[in-house]
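ok so for the tutorial part 2 we go from a plain amino acid sequence to predicted structure tokens. step 1 is just haveing the sequence, like this:
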Amino acid sequence: TQRDGAMWLPSALLLLSVPGFSSLSGPSTVTGTEGGSLSVQCQYEEKYKAFTKYWCRQPCLLLWNQMVETRGSEGEVRSGRVSIVDHSADLTFTVTLENLTTDDAGKYRCGIATILREEGLNGFLPDLFFQVQVFVSPGPCLTASTSCSSYSW
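step 2 — the prediction. this is what the tokens look like for a chain of 153 residues:
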């Protein structure tokens, strides 16, 4: 019944927030150097292959602050200095931030858009995501004679 489903939903949401019980995983922190780049690899379960994957700076209210999202293919999607590629054969997607500045430091969301896509919950399940804290350290790019380093996580 609908009432039974309403009682089940909070339990499902609680399980999604328990560490180690996630359909989506990746690093909780990444560090890059100013002027360089960094990559974040997010791993997901097979049942989410066809879903849209995204990366946004928090808060991601209704995806209004969304920076970049996949479009159902394995090709790279770019928005400014940020790109995303879904490697569905490996069940991962990779987000790359280029030409880092200190303003890029902050909290981001690595997510899968599942709203209205999950079966068994009358069409509703919040997006799957985890938070990634991005740190940007001053780097060798501050001097004219040194090239920038790139870090990949």
